[in-house]
Amino acid sequence: MTLDYTQTVDFLAEKAGILPEFESENGIFTTSFETKKALLKALGYDADTPQAAEKSLKNMAEKPFMRALPPVTVCFADQKTAQIPVTVFVAENTMLTFELVAENGEKRLWRAETAELPVADAMRVGERDCEHRVLTLELPETGYHTLRVSGKNIPAAGREMTLAVAPEKCYMPEMMRRGGRPWGFPVQLYALRSENNWGIGDFSDLKSMAGVAKTFGADIVGINPVNVAFMAKPETASPYYSSSRLFLNPLYIDVTAVPEFGQCAELQKYVKSKEFQAEMQKAAQSRLVDYTAVGKLKTKAFRMLFDDFKNAAPERRAAFERFCEQGGRELHAAALYQALAEYFVAKKKGFGFKSWGAQYASPDTAASLKFAADHADDVAYYEYLFWLADEQFAAASAEMDAQGLGVGLYQDLAVGVASESAETWGAQELFATDLSIGSPPDMFNANGQEWGVAPMRPEAMRDEAYLSYRKMLRANMKRAGAVRIDHVMGLVRLFCIPRGEKGAYLRYDVNDMMGIVALESHRNKCLVVGEDLGVVPSFFREMLEKAGILSFRVFRYEQTGDGRYKPLQYYPETALVAAGTHDMPTLAGYWLGTDINAAREIGMMDGDRYEQARRMRLNDRRAMVEALASAGIWFVTPENFDAEINGDALPPRLVEALYSHLAAAPCRLMLVQLEDVLEQAEQMNMPGTNTEYPNWRYKLPVMIGELADDEKMRRVCAAVRKIRNG
Q1: Cβ partners under 8 Å of residue 413, min gap 6
Q2: SS3 of 125, please?
């Protein structure tokens, strides 16, 4: 059948995983012809003309027959066997030799005639008739194994593939397997205040939080993503907009905890100077994190430490060299990127590689290699910072274990990485850098949201047997007792927006993705939570439960169509429960409408919408009272009922009451937000804003050292501990 241009693009888009339509809060949307073409181009399929589209479709159809074996097959151990397509040229019966090399080195060798293998499909490629014959393979133990094939009448390419065998479910900590129901604190690391930090929370503060959790009987300390950002532009503060998810942000290094700190005479002189003390005290006492000031202070100290590192003990230098060797190409590229960004920002250019010119289009161009050689010391400097950050993060993680926390560190894994970043710069064949991950249109954003982070290309992920994805998971799971996968719907689909066009959903192989997550979860002994808020496919939560990935349930989202809050029996056991998230107003801010007032002040809400939002919030207050009263919890004083429900003050027992209520939910995990307990009104991040609101900057109102004696903390945590730890 001959296809016209539109049909060819439609068919090509379908095969590439672009969904033809999608449903959001604003209704059902059809993916336009122009959007399909733009998405296809970003994914590496030219469809700009009818001839180009036909060629791309032909190449796509022929590609699986160009390899003897597929690049990867992901299976679950309970399947017992795998069905592997083997490409053969149609000819007389021939003998094939197969070798399975298990991850532990064990080998299994056998032979099979092509006639013994059933035909799955066939295609003529060039002058050859090709078939996919199906090899039924008994699965080895869980792990990453290698299957090889040799013989006549098979393609020369792709004779080796990765066989990933995953456990049926993700890992679960022992205390949870015994019936424990752990709870703990989600922390915005930058927001922590202490007597010693320089105006931003650091890894030593994170280490101290292990003791705070132990004091209150908690088993979890959660953190925002702490991956490396852009050192040349420290005000690019969003933890979800990183330069690389493989390495950590040096701004979180505690300079005074670096072993060489005390021996560096120049640095000692610097930190004792009046200039430093004045600037540091100003940054520390600021209500908001001043990233520029902190960056200036720490960068000067880092340079002194690095310059003096030549005098470090041999074992310390050897440890650094081991870190560089283990980090390999990715570490070198991440450090080179920071050095180049610093160089170009100083020349009034951007910190994104697309502004540097074609000669610096990747780490492997002649210009990039020359820069690396000419500025080897600058590249080593950033490698050194990544090493210090890794050391201190490891120490914080170890302290969680030392304190006996049942889960320990609960790390947040961002859904993507900045479109122009070290991660995308070093792997542009893997990332669609002309696309932005975002969200579909909703009642607040008619055109949807663009997050400025690039998706991985599904086909490219398979072509490299998910190696980069595995490394990224490993980097974020290796120190953590639990990982929260931001926007976990990305395992099945991502809303991707081409420049100048409306967005659409891009499909991923969800079975492959969940298999890789489960395998890495067990390897790193790491519980997995999926942030499944927003537009969730109808089948998806059932898949999460089957895979042992905990759902993420937020009280304020658990409402019926008429605005009532759902009783706790409707909360699933296989979930984490929380009152809110970093993208939502705190409890105090929600009750008082601080978020609504802020939205009006920055121009996000006009007078009519403001008044409507205020009325809706009053209704929500009453719904909260009703929900808790139905559960036998009454937090409003009877004699002041009207004043507390409709007034401008926070009811004294609201926070304790709500967290007592949520503690009784059947959910396996629970988070208690410090901002709620401390009755902070400002929210951490206001979605849909960039510079209009001070996102990712508000600090906690009290010091870490004051938490143990804080009356609100003691009261709320005692109530939660009594119910959860029972």
Answers
A1: 225, 245, 472, 473, 476, 483, 484, 485, 486
A2: strand
41: left (phi over 0), alpha (psi -120 to 50) or beta: alpha
Q: Which two tokens stand for residue 297?
A: 């202070």
Residue closest to 148 by CA, chosen among 83, 114, 99: 99
Q: Helix 467-477 and helix 510-523: axis angle, to 10°?
A: 40
The residue behind tokens 């479910």 is: 169
Cα 475 from Cα 674, distance rounded (Å): 27
Other residues' Cβ atoms within 10 Å of the Cβ of residue 507 = 14
One-letter amino acid for residue 660 of the chain: S
| pLDDT at residue 577, rounded to an integer | 98
Query: How far from 402 is each of 256, 480, 671, CA to CA, in Å?
Result: 22, 14, 21
Q: What's the count of helices (H) and strands (E) in the chain, helices before strands? A: 24, 25
Q: CA 71, 76, 82, 86: dihedral to nearest 10 degrees?
A: -10
> Cα–Cα distances in Å, from 93 out to 89, 114, 154, 638?
10, 6, 12, 87
Q: Where are the beta strands (DSSP E) in 139-243?
A: 143-151, 160-166, 183-187, 220-223, 227-228
DSSP state at residue 574: S
Per-10-residue mean pLDDT of the chain, 726 residues long, equals 89 97 86 97 97 96 97 97 97 92 96 95 94 97 98 96 98 96 98 97 98 98 97 95 97 98 96 97 98 98 97 96 97 98 95 96 97 98 98 98 97 97 96 94 71 96 98 98 97 95 96 98 98 91 97 95 94 97 96 94 88 93 95 89 88 96 98 98 91 96 97 98 91
Give yes or no for a contact between 695 and 684, defined as CB atoms under 8 angstroms apart. Answer: yes
Residues 6+ apart with CB under 8 A from 32: 501, 502
- Among residues 117, 87, 115, 81, the alpha carbon closest in space to that of 100 is found at 81
Angle in degrees, CA 524, 527, 528, rounded to 5: 110
- DSSP state letters, 481-525: SEEEETTGGGGTEEEEEETTS--EEEE--HHHHHHHHHHHHHHTT
Q: How far is residue 177 from each of residues 398, 518, 628, measured CA to CA in Å?
A: 22, 17, 30
Q: What amino acid is encoded at 603 in this protein?
A: G
As a whole number of angstroms, the distance between CA 282 and CA 274 comes to 12
Instruction: Give the type of residue at 573.
Output: E
Q: Are 359 and 307 in contact (CB under 8 A)?
A: no
- The SS3 of residue 162 is strand
Strands of 504-507's sheet in order across: 417-418, 449-454, 435-439, 493-498, 504-507
| Burial (0-12, 13-18, 19+ Cβ within 10 Å), 348 | exposed
3-state secondary structure of 70: coil
**How many C-alpha atoms does 449 have within 13 Å on its Cβ side?**
17
Q: Note the pLDDT of residue 446.
A: 63
CB 334 within 8 A of CB 386: yes
The CA angle 347-351-352, to the nearest 5 degrees, is 125
**Structure-block tokens of residue 633:** 């919890």
Report the first-to-last Cα separation within the chain, whole angstroms.
Answer: 68
DSSP of 326-362: HHHHHHHHHHHHHHHHHHHHHTT--SSGGGS-GGGSS
Cβ atoms of 93 and 115 within 8 Å: the answer is yes
Cβ atoms of residues 679 and 184 within 8 Å = no
b/e string for 298-323 if b means 16 or more Cβ within 10 A? bbbbbebbbebbeebeeeeeeebeeb
Minimal CA–CA distance to 253: which of 208, 197, 176?
A: 197
Q: What is the largest CA-CA distance in the chain?
A: 93
- Which residues pair with residue 88 across a beta bridge? 131
pLDDT score for 441: 80
